[in-house]
């Protein structure tokens, strides 16, 4: 849960307390609201007392208790009376009175008890407290329900995002598989051409390699042809005469 939501829920619960106190004050000051609180408190009191008495009263236990009380009372009565000779009619009359007392006690025990109502001040206080506590409970329950709903929606959105991402990944994987299949088909069609080119490649490239080697050798080795120079001696070994001698030889 985010920090903002925590602070918001705390603020709502804090503001609910003054509202509950305001409800209590209006229960004493406002006449219509006071009557409503009194009636509501009296109904709650009657329901509470009936539930308690219903849980405490067990018919079998009540019958046994009545029987024991009647027997104890009869024993005390006989102990107080002096021993006299009773006739048959007196004994039957005593047993009849005994059965009547048992029936009266059982009837009284099974009769719904009278519940004493609350006083006005107590009823106002009880009703106001119950309404204010109910308001606090509703506010706290609403905050909890909102937090639960928000967490569920967040989880649902997260699952939707994960599902969309999985769909995108599946789609991209499908596209890549199709692309790989196309590339494999193209490679299968081009493979014979690649094999043919690789088989013919050594014969066709022999001449260019040879010419390239020749060029490299020519650049590396200098030329061995003789170069003529005016100062070099002639091939026969006689040096060439100077120009002055040539001119004197031409004169007569």
UniProtKB/TrEMBL annotation:
Residue ranges of the region described as Disordered: 71-97, 191-252
Feature: compositional bias, Basic and acidic residues: 86-97, 226-252
Entry keyword Coiled coil: yes
Organism superkingdom: Eukaryota
UniProt GO BP: regulation of lipid metabolic process
Cellular component GO terms, alphabetical: mitochondrion
Coiled-coil regions, chain positions: 152-189
Presence of the UniProt keyword Coiled coil in the record: yes
Compositionally biased tracts (Polar residues): 191-206
InterPro entries noted in UniProt: OPA3-like
Keyword terms: Coiled coil
Family membership: Belongs to the OPA3 family.
Name recorded for this polypeptide: Optic atrophy 3 protein-domain-containing protein
Organism of derivation: Lineolata rhizophorae
